[in-house]
């Protein structure tokens, strides 16, 4: 035993609380924005579709989506993190609940991708999987035998 | 046996811990794990065994902590 490390996949920004805020009118319509911790358009698109939304990329970056009666968009902020934007027909509580569900699905996809990446690439990095286990909190615990470092 | 334990959490974050490595031998694995996981280190620390294995005194331990965090 020698070092412990905490890592965050590049698709995730360091966590921030999900909270809706009112914004000034855009194009004559009131809008509400919610900062997410999502950075990856492709994973977000999959998460939106998993939740039953119609979603597609938009020109110039970001995504637009429809869920039931309301439309919303995602645009990237100056730090590369996606921000959800809702129209006035959505209450802050509805928007926050939706983004919370979306965040849960997005992180589920991130976890699955990280796991798949380790399965596919461990050997290239001089490691071999010795054991794996799914714990009660749904964490996936992998033990990798170290064979060689290619650093 | 040298090994690495990965805990891939449901929230997408990952905790990693090396085992069976002596002293600085563990350091290359920080960058190696970043590449393997396509992830960034947000926190790191030596465990007790690092100091036991290398028989470091308190002053040396402090120096190694500075090196580790300077490595990020």
Protein model, in words:
- The complex is a heterodimer of chains A (151) and B (72).
- Chain A has helices spanning 41-50, 92-121; strands at 3-9, 20-26, 29-35, 54-57, 63-67, 70-76, 82-87, 127-134, 140-146.
- With 151 residues, chain A is of the alpha+beta class.
- In chain A, helix 1 (41-50) crosses helix 2.
- The longest helix of chain A has 30 residues, at 92-121.
- Chain A starts with a strand and ends in a 5-residue tail after the last strand.
- In chain A, 28% of the residues are buried.
- Chain B is of the alpha+beta class.
- Chain B contains 3 helices and 3 strands; from the N terminus they run ββαβαα.
- Chain B has a two-stranded antiparallel ribbon.
- Chain B is globular.
- At the A-B interface, strand 1, helix 2 and strand 9 of A face strand 1, strand 2, helix 1, strand 3 and helix 2 of B.
